[in-house]
Amino acid sequence: MDKKTLLENVTENAAYVGGILAIIAGLFVLAVIFELISRKKNGETGRVFTTRKIVMCGMFSALSGVIMLFEIPLPFAPTFYKLDFSELPVLIGGFAYGPAAAVVMEFLKVLIKLVIKNTSTAFVGEFANFAVGCSLVLPASIIYSMKKTKGTAIAALASGTVIMTVFGTAFNALYLLPAFAALYGMPMEAILAMGAEVNPLAGGGLVSFVIACVAPLNLIKGTADSIICLAVYKRLSPIFKSEAKAVRRTEAKSAE
Question: Are the C-beta atoms of residues 106 and 134 closer than 8 Å to each other?
Fold first, then answer.
């Protein structure tokens, strides 16, 4: 490899990594803004991140990172698309601790997975998992933080599922599939053929591929995570409420 080619590769990778970091930072800032808005609306005071919240974020992230290792193949999609439920702990944590915590947990989840099992996609797959995961957990936790009722929880999870399905489908068509094609040196036609082989509805080109293979995957994932989240969070909610009251009492005493 000559010096010019090496410099070009370094520049391209630096731009790629810089873009990823910018997106992560942007999502975190957005989450903090909405959390501050919801806290003001609900009359909450104190820091966005307490020591206990940081510890709990670490616990939920660790659980998500481990769950991320267990993937389920689907009959209507190629083998590189698999279902996992790693967003479930992040959803529960996001409902309990707010949208800023949800983004942090989503990021830590990917880091923990990488510690346990190294990337096989030059971080493209992990970044995709983070971005698509945030498209579910961020809107859901933002909506729920505004008004913590069962009806709002259902609306939040339904909205998050729809947003993830739409975003994930478009994201795959515009970024992920071209990135994988470039990474593995495969023509896009070969990737699309893999989809058409297992799903005849995916044989009409890129748009047909993502609609037939990607959209159902995200819809199934979002729906399953939402149903389980509602069931689990209902049981854990008294614990989270009791914890929140204890934190407010501690903050009130500290302010005296």
Answer: yes
